[in-house]
Amino acid sequence: MSQEERNKAQILSGYRVLDCTVAMSGPFAAQRMGDIGADVIKIEPVEGEWQRRMPAGGGDRKINASFLSLNRNKRSLAINLKAAEGQAALHKLVKDADVFMQNYRPHVAKKLGVDYYTLKAINPRLIYVSISGYGAEGPYSARPGQDLLLQALSGAMYSTGQADGPPQPIGQYVVDATTAYAAFEGALAALLHRERTGEGQLVEVNMLDAAISFQMQELSVFTIDGKPQQRTQEPHGHVYIRAPYGVFKAQDGYVALAFPQLAKLGELFNEPIFLSMNDDVDSFAQRDLIHQLVAKHSANWKQAELIEAMLALGLWAGPVNDFAKTVEDPQVKFNGSFVEYEHHSEGHLKTPGFPIRFSKTPSTVERGAPLVGEHSREVLGAAGFNPEEIDRLISEGVIGAP
To answer: Which GO terms describe its molecular function (predicted)?
Structure first.
């Protein structure tokens, strides 16, 4: 299949997404739509989204790594939405758009003329995806919606760590990512509904509900069975899972071990205490002792030998990698978990790829993250603006272009 044929065959080929989002959750959701063929137009201020200028991980480049990772397969239209002509230009694009995404603070969208009811009047078939931190209304609606704050509010930080230690943040932007997938899923579901009925609609997603939903099992154990998050002294990996469950140091690295049968551990380590324990009782009641014993025995093994011995007994074990080892892992390479491509300003890039695989409509990188306003002329020209009009708007600061 040629590249042109593949582009036409992609699932969202022919659909247009207007992406008015910033930071991670919104841009990530819109990128997912671009990865499966949508024409995603990133609407950003004439000076560019602030995320472009953040020193992601301490890096220093023209387009930082964070922005590059969240904005591939998009075109950039740089536009001043505080100007009446800027709003009018965007409204013209809305007429032919399929999805509009925004994650502004409450009431900002209305001030900029891009709230749901304004855009619905222009295009009743529009799918309008609104992403917020806590919900459009309510006592926390005006608070900043940031990943760490939502991890804290949702209870997630008390599911790991030690009894006398502080709450433990998760080391990834997991709330942002979960929110992005909820927005992506909501947009696709609403498009399916529109295909069947012709109706557009408002889709609302918030980070708080996303953070609660990804703890479906943990919160249900609390709400249904009334069991609190009881942390123990040793660094157990999860308050609701029996011991041993966590990371253990070997001679030359670390091994992750997930709730093995204690009798098999007793056999492996020649540890009689394990042989007398009950998996369903002692592995909860004596978590600290179990962790201490596993840590003592693991320290006598080489990492690879311990993992091999555990797997041979049917125990769930594996290596603990840093990023350098993850990138070179044979299964990661086999899966093609990363994609490599040439970026027109940043050179050769390697980034996480496509977690969903389609046999007939594979995702591809058609373009890297755009420069600010890189496609302003192209997008407005296709919308009916003549070159002189575009030049004037650029000269007056309504539109941004390189």
So the answer is: transferase activity
